[in-house]
Amino acid sequence: MTEPTLDIIAIGNAIVDVIARADDAFIEAEGIDKGSMRLVDTETAEGLYGRMAAGIEASGGSAANTVAGIAALGGKCAFIGQIADDQLGEVFAHDIRSLGVKFETAARAGDPPTARCLILVTPDAQRTMNTFLGASQFLPAAALDRELIASAAILYLEGYLWDPEQPRAAMRAAIDVARAAGRKVAFTLSDAFCISRHRDDFRALIDDGLLDILFANEGEILSLNETEDFDAAVDATAAKVPLLVVTRSEQGAIAVKEGQRYAVPAEPIDQIVDTTGAGDLFAAGFLAGQAQGRSVTDSLTMGAIAAAEVISHYGARPEADLKALVAARLG
């Protein structure tokens, strides 16, 4: 087996994030459940975009946020995701490349346009996400750079992208490539609604031993196991996955590796401004720690540091120097 030349390669939705402030009255008037993530069609996306306040626009998507965070921590990363041949597609490609992430997926001609996520952030820092998946749900297996996938130590997959048929097939093909090359496969459950739609598929990935690292938050691990008993859910899944990582918001995070449980508290911050990207950046910190050969506890701490930084301001990308924050905390 050849030595990897990349730390992480991720496959996910290539989305342009539009993040704006909104009050509870606006959320209610739009008929949206506060704090939820819903999929919207082109007409709904364009209408909501026109009614939103001015905000921040940048390349986004869960897995893209994660590799951006890993790059900020000094990791070597690549991203595979489908954009359209349009202005927002150009914005996405330029932005993610400017962060030091290798991105070479060819743009798709014609409709639908590049995906976008309209994120409404209320004064209590809750984010309500309205996602138009657009071109991102048409990533074919033919678009995969198999040599690039085989060159990465870890393949990281986003549960959000499991819904459409084409990218689901592409991710299954990528898993085969990574495992044939002797690489690790990491997967994030992404959201409870993904689990409700694909619980059997996700369980099959776990039961078949195709995942080396699984990321979830507390609600997701409960949903996966269809129980309200957190410890029972963790134990059931950890018995089947070599490394399980579960975030618990203000209660910090845990990991279970080879039957041993590790835990770290949440990092203290002055004020929570926007929780967008918290889980994505936690995964970035943890995976960067693993790529650097750090312990599970230190990797959890790096995840907590990255998550704390990103929720202290608007947007899903770090603004402070993550490497400096980690060095100050862990050396």
Q: Strand order across the biggest sheet? A: 6-5-1-9-10-11-12-13-14
Tally of discrete structural domains = 1
CATH class: Alpha Beta
Per DSSP, the total helix count is 12
How would you classify the helix and strand content by structural class? Answer: alpha/beta
What fraction of the residues are assigned to beta strands by DSSP?
A: 15-25%
Distance between the termini: 32 Å
Overall 3D form: globular
N to C succession of SSEs: EEHEHEHEHEEEHEHEHEHHEEEHHH
Helix amount: 25-40%
| Cα radius of gyration in angstroms | 18 Å
The CATH architecture name reads 3-Layer(aba) Sandwich
What name does the CATH topology carry?
UDP-N-acetylmuramoyl-L-alanine:D-glutamate ligase
- Low-pLDDT stretches are none
The CATH superfamily appears as: Ribokinase
Largest sheet report: 9 strands, mixed
